[in-house]
């Protein structure tokens, strides 16, 4: 079997009742390279049909590669793909387009690359080898289309370059960057979209108006994580201005604090929602294990995305269609977890499960002090210091996923509450350091973590974890903080997998509700 690699979701879209997922794909190996645009379709984003590749290197303007991009629905309900083509062995990058060969084909199986490509070529001011991943275009109130392309300037300044067009064919670069940030490195897979301040509904990318904020997401090549800011789109100056509370760069907000990169959103008009899709890379012994498996990389479960009522961050939740895979269910109610106690969740398939749990506690007084020396540390560094086995005051408590019977290996997903001066600080961790008894030096077993911006007035914290053999995707406090871990147990596999709820804090924690389901397989 020839190994294959699944990478960035490049152009997800909803068109005439069908969801389309295009994604970067290497048909010839388990590593990056030989990139084509693979194409799958679905009616629910859970069960997928794989089709023939939509785009692959074939022309002078993409002979050396067909890299990431996006889709846009033009007036007259006509979809178009924008993508980056590689034109030489020096990785010179240009922006191209493709259109369906037959709009009456419900699956849009075949795509054409017209002869007037490329649409955009880098001028002398642009680093032509760091010039890629055009966004979904939006139509301005002046009747001109706009799109962004990620790039890099000197001194590691990342930027999004703005282009305008009246007819979608002839594009002109704006005199100034749409936005840039110092010391952030190359910007990849840029995404820009509006979010409503009134409700959780999604908005078409071209919507402009009051009670709307905009989100600029960038994938940073240096860290391989996805960061975002929330701000204002100044339509007169054609610039994006992050809110004052936003932090840009490595200490900024991330869509997911784990194995999650090169994400892309799209507007789903059938259910008035914005959908986020992302790529989860491998963390096992590379490349040996990937060659043995015959594949590398997966797409994360699609998520609905909206802005939190506070306006400070986004919220994400697995799409409702995932619940169609739920099978046998078990429940636990009003169970007290004392210090050092755990309880096994029995009656489901722990290797493939959906778990929702709400914890409560009677007091915040036992929350441990947040060490001032941790202020400049990343959340994952604090998690590595104060892991699940380190006894605390209020926490750590949570779930031990993909566990062996005697806990030789497990992936804990948990909360720990700190007192930080006159406020409380909630740390959420998904710690892969104990996920496998295999200790190969090339295996990546990090302590992923993020802080949760949550009001503890009701003294409750909720957690949802989607467990699927080598993946644990977790959503804290209703999706305020999300962490996806790739793990590779040696003992806790298939029928030998266990699931526990645990508490290792001095404060007793109560499981108000725990609902867990065995999950069926999706069709792929």
Automatic annotation (TrEMBL):
Q: What are the GO BP annotations of this UniProt entry? A: carbohydrate metabolic process
Q: Does the keyword Hydrolase apply?
A: yes
Domain (Glycosyl hydrolase family 32 C-terminal): give its ranges.
321-518
Pfam families with a match to the protein in the record: Glyco_hydro_32C, Glyco_hydro_32N
InterPro entries, A to Z: ConA-like_dom_sf (IPR013320), Fructan_Metab_Enzymes (IPR050551), Glyco_hydro_32 (IPR001362), Glyco_hydro_32_C (IPR013189), Glyco_hydro_32_N (IPR013148), Glyco_hydro_beta-prop_sf (IPR023296)
Instruction: Kindly indicate where the leader peptide sits in this chain.
Output: none
Gene3D superfamilies linked? Exo-inulinase, domain 1 (2.60.120.560), Glycosyl hydrolase domain, family 43 (2.115.10.20)
The segment(s) forming the Glycosyl hydrolase family 32 N-terminal domain are: 8-318
What are the entry keywords?
Glycosidase, Hydrolase
**GO MF terms held by the record:** hydrolase activity, hydrolyzing O-glycosyl compounds
Which family does the similarity line name? Belongs to the glycosyl hydrolase 32 family.
Subunit composition and interactions: May be present in two forms, a 70 kDa monomer and a heterodimer of the 30 kDa and 38 kDa subunits. The ratio of the levels of the two forms within cells appears to be regulated developmentally.
What's the protein name? Beta-fructofuranosidase
Per the UniProt record, the source organism is Solanum verrucosum
